[in-house]
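Re: weekly structure request thread

Next one in the queue (254 aa):
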Amino acid sequence: MKGDATQDTLIRSYDNAIENPRGKIKKLFYSVIPRHILRNVPFELRLTWLKISKKNVRKRFANSKDLLVNLGCGPQGRPGWINVDAVPGANVNCVYDCRKSLPFQDGSARGIFAEHFFEHLDYQDEVPHFLAECRRVLQPGGVIRIIVPDAGAYLRAYCRGDWDELQKMRVLGENHSEAGMGFAYNTRMELINFVFRQWGQHKFAYDFETLSFILKKHGFSSVQEQKFGGSILPDICIDSPERKHESLYVDAVK
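Done, posted below.
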């Protein structure tokens, strides 16, 4: 889900809401419930409200056909697409929590694109529902393109024993700092943990073998590993260039 920055904003808002001038309430909260548990509470509460308030979204797409759907689009919404995200934004034209359901009719989409969203889903609780929904809304022969951090590539880079390959994947600065994160990695394993945990937002790490397995398990055929900019269905190849060095690209057909 590309709303990571928005989630951090919600966390800060939550901190401000529970903090009196002396910070006693905040300290009391954190002494009882650890911050890493509270971190996702504002986001989940917001999504609960979203489910309640967006019951009519399905009506918008009742007669839609041949859709191109961009799931978890964040700021990467594209003209001519149904750009879905749980966080409202300038390029989001469908605000919806798509982790367990999609607001589209059976067989109404010819292509689904999900870039750096799938790793935010719980492997046991959410992935089965999500893939079943994607398969339901795709027309026969429709294609889903899933792009995730490439766990296999990261682990191979780690096993080299130096920072060279990792720096190509993450674009690290001086002292292995990362722009926009506000901190530097002290060890290579710190970087690996951050990539595949990311403050608890990332739920699972994938290589091609695992992603292919789970797609086939849920009824998709012709699962193919792709490269940046190449797809079975060229219309859904809207990959972000800034993620290409760390990403695994996979197409699967209904």
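Confidence is low (pLDDT under 50) at residues 17-21. The two ends are 23 Å apart (CA to CA).
Next request, please.
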